[in-house]
Each structure stands twice: as C-alpha cells, then as structure tokens.
Amino acid sequence: MDSIALYEQKLHQTINTILGINGVLEKTHYSSAQIEILHAWLVGFFISDYEKYLSKNALPFDRQNLKITTQLVSEGMSNISVEILKQYKNFYTRYLELYQFAPDHYGIALNTQSRLGLHIEILFNRLEIGHFFILSRVVSSIKKAFYEITVIQNSWSTQNLQEKINNYYFEQNGPEYDLEEAIEQLANTTLSQLGIL
Questions:
Q1: DSSP 121
Q2: In terms of CB atoms within 10 Å, which end of the chain has fewer, N or C?
Q3: By the 8 A CB rule, do 30 and 84 touch?
Q4: Model pTM?
Q5: Within 10 A of 135 (CB to CB), how many other CB atoms are there?
C-alpha cells in the first residue's frame, strides 16, 4: 500500500472515530455542557494524533487541509472547517488534564504535570466550552490560570471573558510579582469562597 492509500485509510478511520464520539459520550453521566467540552477535546485529540501520522509520512500540509475538508463534507460534517479543527486541536493541547474525564473506551493515557491555579475538576464543572476555547488561546500559563480563577469568581460569560482579555484585564489587575505564588493564593481564596476548602 503506497503512502497516498495509507493516507486515505487513516483519514477515513480518523473521521469515523470522530463521528462516533457522540454515541459514546451520551452514555456517560456528564451534563450536556460537559459532554460538549469532552466532544471538542476528543476531536482535538484525534486531529492531533492524525497530524502526527501525516508528519511521519511527509505529506504536504496544504494537501492535508484539502483532504480533511473534502472528507468532512462527504461525511456530512461540512459545518466543521479546518479552522475549527485547529481550534479543537489547540484546546486539546492546552488542556491535556481533561483526559481523565474521557471515556475509558478510548484508552487515552497522558502524563500531565500538576497545573497552576484551580484543579481541572473545578474548571470542568463550572466553565462552558466557549470559556475553554478562549482560554486555550492564552499563551502564558500565569495569565491562563488567572483568567480561569477570575471567570469563576465573577461568573463571567464567554463574551465578558473575551472583552476583559481584549482590554488587558490581567495587565491592569493581575499580580505584579511572585506570580505563581500569587496565583496559588488567589486559587485558594476562590476555593474557600466556593466552600471547597
């Protein structure tokens, strides 16, 4: 089997796996918001895994985009563009800790470092997928942790969060020194307010 045939086969398997995610997640005990979060995260996982496959087979990036888009249309997923798939991938790479909530069926096992700020369980229970998408675009781990905490403290909508980031809320209100220690103190204060500590 040549590289193009392998490409076609792997693409089809990947998209079929993505298409099958809904059925698996519906059997879990999670809320609809959490299922939506896991669905997007799992799509990101499969897209990331697929890109690793492509890079090993040295296929041009523009061909990848064209093929993925064509296959998505043929599978009835024309509403998901390559740009959206990139967003899913970015979401996955920035929130690897969500693997613990993925269905066992997928057998995902990742080594993740302890995170700064609030535990992923708190975020998973209190944030919407829109929050995660916005936060996954924040490069700095300090800023991301600060915004995660502040969203929960102030019950910000996704629109509020995006406006605050656009208006440099962290730069005006975030800690100025001992950043990691300040974030941890802020997280502990929030946990106390939520009655978790």
A1: H
A2: N
A3: no
A4: 0.81
A5: 22
Cα gap 188→168, rounded to integer Å: 24
Residues 103-130, mean pLDDT to the nearest whole number: 86
Tell me the two tokens of residue 112: 């993740």
Contacts of 133 (CB under 8 A, 6+ apart): 40, 87, 91
DSSP string, 87-101: HHHHHHHH-GGGGGG
4 token code pair = 């193009």
pLDDT of 10 reads: 66
Q: For CA atoms 66, 71, 73, 77, give the dihedral sign.
A: negative
Q: What is the pLDDT of residue 135?
A: 97
Give CA–CA dist 7/11, Å, rounded. Answer: 6
**Mean pLDDT within 122-130:** 95
